[in-house]
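Sequence and structure are kept together here, with a separate record for every protein. An example record follows, reproduced without changes.
>
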Amino acid sequence: MFDRTVHLLNESGLHARPATLFVETASKFRSQIMVKKGDQEVDGKSVLSLMLLELTKGTPVTIKAEGEDEVQAVNALVELMEGLFDS
């Protein structure tokens, strides 16, 4: 398992559009991907699950992956979040 913590920088938080971009990126990888906020942990390949976390700007988020491409998956998702979802 590989994980990294990042602070959400997107001004409007993780609403539908960035959540969709996150899931589209996560779905490119074979690894299982989880997103954790505090005590809540959800499937990183589910838009609905991500939106239920109610992530707002500045929220620390841990992205975890387990599988053959776990490091690449986490790094790509962190890069997406740090890039304000401009892809």
Q: What stands out?
A: Helices lie at 16-26, 47-52, 70-82. The chain has one domain: 2-82. The longest strand covers residues 60-66. The chain is about 35% helix and 25% strand.
